[in-house]
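A favour between colleagues. Tell me how you read the following sequence-structure pair.

===
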Amino acid sequence: MAKLVKGGVDLTGIGVNLGILAYRDGMKMLMNGVAVDKSEADALRFLTHKAHLKVVVQENPEDPPQNIEPFLKALTV
């Protein structure tokens, strides 16, 4: 998504809805069901801070979307 936004795709009207990002070695858990490495954390920070997009996580369609911002602030990657 960060590459698309940097390339000129306008997502301001819709934002970004993440699903599950599986854990691999070297990653940190951002929240339940979402693990990120440094490059993914940087991309999410770009989307929220520089592109000013609303980024939410929704593991399952019946779950309420959760804003990712508080989880990024607590992340130490």
